[in-house]
């Protein structure tokens, strides 16, 4: 038997309605905020991610699915969405269409991590980006969209944490100070954090390991080294969130995991997810378009994992309502009934009534059992008797309430009964 690849999961029919529900909320809320959908390829040139995410990040150095194609070009299954969006923005000159561009996406991503709950090798992200605005109001728009999606999905147990990671003017001085301080406490850090000191010192602050967190208690924070521009940007964002009644807390050690962030960094976290508690997160990346060969363009965005959302929703006992409700099951009592329901099913579907019938020539008893198994709202049983009498009965599967219908059947009358 050939099985799915480790860390890559089938989304089965009994789960797909949950995914459809989540995706529907993401689409509707993004469009409510007037973001437009963008769909980028799954496969990109490897240099896109090494230049944007950073050579020393875990994603690029350890986790990417990278290989040579038949043209001997190095290509990578995309591990995150922002770099692809920015590449497309530059390539197709989207900034020339309007000075501020608002985009969103839902897409599978790929990282060869150790599979665990909510962290698969093929995972699905939703995200949004605003390109063109340097102002804190764009940061607030991104955060409020993220919050609206979580709230409209029914989540209640989540918290927004924010920070500023500075800019190209003030962050270098902080990094020098940070590396010195980390070397002083090096013996108290985990091996992973020790290895990050020279390569990516800010990521040490992001460690969830208790040993690291204990060692980092007195470490200097970047907020004390921010330039006036970064400080005023952060203060304005805090005020905007207060004006929007969006609760938040400041975590001066929040840095996020990608090299391209500047100024704002934020995460929505949930206790429902355990130690790896991030539902979604993002921040500002004003240097990325220039880094990828475009014109200097300020930008801000976020991304969240759909698998992690589903875990959090299930932990809160959030009941999903199936989008794929079977409204009507047509059962046949004999050959004449079978011919009639085949034609009737097409009329019902043309009228927008979801309709099913038996495909296996089973007995009436088996057909009724199938209607029950598929959770059909209504049932019509048709045989020679009903056709001779020119009368049908539609029965509520849960209510046992019945209605008589004359043949030839008026589909609009049937529709009004079903939609009551």
Structure notes:
By secondary structure, the protein is α+β, with helices and mostly antiparallel strands. The protein folds into two domains: 13-170 and 226-315, BirA Bifunctional Protein, domain 2; 328-418, 3-Layer(aba) Sandwich (Rossmann fold), CATH 3.40.50.800. Helix content is 39%, strand content 20%. It has 16 helices and 16 strands. It has an eight-stranded mixed β-sheet. It has a five-stranded mixed β-sheet with strand order 13-12-14-15-16, sandwiched between helices. The two termini are 48 Å apart. The mean pLDDT is 93.
| Average of the residue pLDDT scores | 93
CATH topology of the largest domain: BirA Bifunctional Protein, domain 2
Strand content: 15-25%
**Quick one: biggest sheet?**
8 strands, mixed
* The CATH architecture of the largest domain: 2-Layer Sandwich
Specify the structural class: alpha+beta
Task: Kindly give the count of domains.
Answer: 2
Distance between the termini: 48 Å
Summarize the structure in short.
Helix content is 39%, strand content 20%. The protein is α+β, with helices and mostly antiparallel strands.
Write the SSE topology.
Elements: H1 13-32, E1 36-37, E2 43-45, H2 46-52, H3 58-63, E3 66-68, E4 74-77, H4 82-91, E5 101-110, E6 122-131, H5 136-152, E7 159-164, H6 171-184, H7 191-199, H8 202-205, H9 210-215, H10 228-243, E8 249-250, E9 262-269, E10 278-284, H11 288-291, E11 299-305, H12 306-315, E12 328-332, H13 335-350, E13 355-357, H14 364-373, E14 378-382, H15 384-389, E15 391-396, E16 402-406, H16 411-418
Parallel strand pairs: 1-5, 7-8, 12-13, 12-14
Antiparallel strand pairs: 2-4, 3-4, 5-6, 6-11, 7-9, 9-10, 10-11, 14-15, 15-16
Helix pairs in contact: 1-5, 5-10
């Amino acid at each position: 038997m050939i099985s799915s690849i480790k860390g890559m999961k089938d989304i089965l029919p009994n789960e797909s309605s949950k995914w459809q529900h989540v995706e529907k909320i993401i689409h509707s809320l993004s469009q409510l905020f007037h973001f437009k959908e963008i769909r980028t390829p799954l496969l990109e040139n490897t240099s896109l991610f090494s230049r944007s995410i950073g050579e020393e990040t875990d994603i690029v150095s350890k986790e990417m699915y990278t290989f040579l194609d038949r043209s001997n070009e190095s290509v990578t299954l995309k591990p995150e969405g922002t770099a692809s969006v920015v590449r497309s923005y530059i390539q197709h000159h989207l900034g020339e269409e309007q000075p501020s561009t608002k985009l969103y996406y839902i897409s599978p991503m790929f990282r060869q991590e150790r599979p665990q709950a909510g962290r698969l090798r093929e995972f699905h992200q939703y995200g949004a980006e605003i390109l063109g605005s340097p102002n804190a109001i764009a940061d607030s728009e991104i955060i409020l969209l993220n919050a609206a999606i979580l709230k409209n999905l029914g989540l209640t147990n989540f918290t927004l944490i924010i920070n500023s990671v500075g800019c190209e003017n003030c962050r270098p001085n902080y990094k020098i100070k940070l590396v010195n301080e980390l070397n002083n406490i090096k013996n108290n850090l985990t091996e992973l954090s020790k290895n990050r000191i020279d390569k990516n010192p800010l990521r040490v602050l992001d460690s969830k390991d208790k040993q690291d967190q204990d060692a980092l208690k007195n470490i200097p924070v970047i907020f004390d080294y921010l330039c006036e521009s970064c400080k005023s940007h952060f203060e304005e964002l805090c005020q905007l969130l207060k004006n929007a009644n969006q609760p938040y807390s400041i975590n001066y050690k929040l840095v996020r995991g990608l090299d391209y962030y500047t100024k704002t960094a934020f995460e929505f976290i949930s206790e429902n997810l355990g130690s790896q508690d991030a539902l979604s997160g993002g921040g500002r990346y004003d240097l990325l378009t220039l880094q990828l060969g475009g014109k200097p363009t300020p930008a801000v965005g976020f991304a969240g994992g759909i698998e992690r959302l589903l875990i959090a929703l299930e932990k809160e006992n959030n009941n999903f309502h199936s989008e794929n409700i079977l409204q009507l099951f047509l059962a046949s009592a004999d050959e004449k009934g079978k011919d009639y329901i085949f034609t009737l099913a097409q009329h019902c579907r043309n009228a927008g009534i979801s309709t099913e019938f038996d495909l296996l020539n089973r007995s009436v008893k088996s057909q009724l059992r199938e209607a029950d198994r598929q959770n059909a709202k209504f049932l019509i049983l048709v045989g020679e008797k009903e056709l001779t009498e020119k009368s049908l009965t539609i029965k509520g599967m849960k209510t046992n309430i019945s209605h008589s219908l004359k043949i030839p059947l008026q589909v609009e009358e049937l529709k009004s009964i079903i939609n009551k």
